[in-house]
Amino acid sequence: MRVVIVEDDALLREGLVLLLDTSGIEVAAAFDHTDDFLAFVRADRPDAVITDVRLPPTHTDEGLRAAVQARQLHPGLPVLVLSAHVETRYAAELLADGKGAVGYLLKERVGKVATFLDSLHRVVEGGTAMDPEVVAQLLAHRRDPLDALTAREREVLGLMAEGYNNATIAELLVVSDGTVLKHIRNIFAKLGLPEDNGHRRVLAVLAYLRS
């Protein structure tokens, strides 16, 4: 796996490089701003990008915009965004193309090495990895069409948003795989997602984030 890092905090950037290196993951390049990063991805497609949301010069949303642009250059390019704060609209914008392979974690999760690496691998495999705190805030503020979901269905959808597969959701909720599948079918039906759509899981998460 070849990963590119975009992070202006030198300590965190070098820490990520060391963490990935010691985990057997190649760091193809590490940048502190978006210009060199975008020049790199124009010439080479990495396996994943890890980027901060707020980067120079304005420290607003440069990292997010660069990530979106990189996915335009390489559709489906896996992107794992790191942020110091919960900014839910950024998660929704990353998912807007419906292709998955995106993650949004608070920077404090980087210190939990196993959780961070698991999230990175899920994103590279085409899934989603949303920080539990992001999911919790979305759950607290989102309304219609999610009002149609039962409490258990919202719980299942929240775990889907974090990026867990059916088997893991069943384990976390202490229910059978069949029960989880039944809940997911109900979620698809209530969110109006067609049965023959191959991206239904991503669309369900997108509805969760943008409703």
Automatic annotation (TrEMBL):
4-aspartylphosphate found at: 52
Top-level division of the source organism's lineage: Bacteria
Source organism phylogeny: Bacteria, Bacillati, Actinomycetota, Actinomycetes, Pseudonocardiales
Residues annotated as domain Response regulatory: 2-122
Record flagged with keyword Translocase: no
Protein name: Response regulator transcription factor
InterPro entries: CheY-like_superfamily, Sig_transdc_resp-reg_C-effctor, Sig_transdc_resp-reg_receiver, Tscrpt_reg_LuxR_C, WalR-like, WH-like_DNA-bd_sf
Pfam families: GerE, Response_reg
Keyword list, A-Z: DNA-binding, Phosphoprotein, Transcription, Transcription regulation
Coiled-coil positions: none
Record organism: Amycolatopsis rubida
Domain spans labelled HTH luxR-type: 142-211
CDD domains membership: LuxR_C_like
